[in-house]
Fold this protein.
Amino acid sequence: MLWALATLLAGPASADTAPTTASQSDRLAIRRTVSEIAAGFRSAYIDPGKGDRTATALEQALAAKAYDDLVDRDEFIRRLTADLRSLTNDEHIFLVRNLRPPGQAVSPRPNDAGFERVERLEGNIGYIRLIRFAPPEIFRDVANNAMRLVADTNALIFDIRGNRGGHPRSIAYLSSFLLDPSRSIHLADAVWRNKGTLNFRTEEFWTSRTPDHYLDKPVYILVGPETFSAAEGFAYHLQALRRATIIGAKTKGGAHATEPDAVVAIEPDLFLVAPNGRTENPVTKSNWDGVGVRPDVEVAPETALVAAMKLALARQSDSTSEGAGVAAPQQTAGAPDHR
């Protein structure tokens, strides 16, 4: 279905030429497009019940002529995205235009693995700041080098404040450095809805072999309200396994995802991203969607690194005074192993 007006296909008109009211043909085109969005959302969204209710709400708003005057293309996209998110409390939903066709993957830059800083801090504390989890083919080699650099530290801090997520297999790979290498540990599942059906399938994520290991030493993960999506999963899954202490403020709360082939083409230059997947943790049997990851130690995000350093140094001091010489191991009990 094509948007009727050439001005809409070209984007927002200038202030001198923009119409003050929508014509009848504008309104008919807008109504057709909103109807297509509602139908696409109903067919694709991971929660069929919520998808149907959301689509019905859009159709009711359409009947009430709520969108009739949205002739500015960008304003239309902003409004529909905001309404879909408000109705679902899901910030993984959006409308996009003029992007790659559905199913065509983004090609990240070769060196853009997401490791912004890797260094040693006071007291031989390792520190890794990750701003994204790049696809595995880019992520793995950089992760290997980073973990090799901090392998002999006394404690390790991962800083994912502001990390907006990325690839779940990269998260599983990085987690593998921290967990028992003698067995495969079930980290998470992704439950996917097959578009246009009420059928679901499950994709499993397990630990894998890594060249180095970081065991029996404390791990801290710094989070905040801008930690989102798969980055939240990194904290959530390691918290569930009791392998890391989470420090900071509650995360954003998005545990949904969209497969490239599930993107709905509304028009040649308008796509609906309606998540068709959700994460499930095998320990908690749940996820962090809508509620966020609750830190073990709640502090303001800007003080999370200081708090982690204090905990790590205090633990070293306690271990030294007890004659242990190294930090006591964190628990890794509770990790399901069904292979």
Q: What stands out?
A: The chain is about 30% helix and 20% strand.
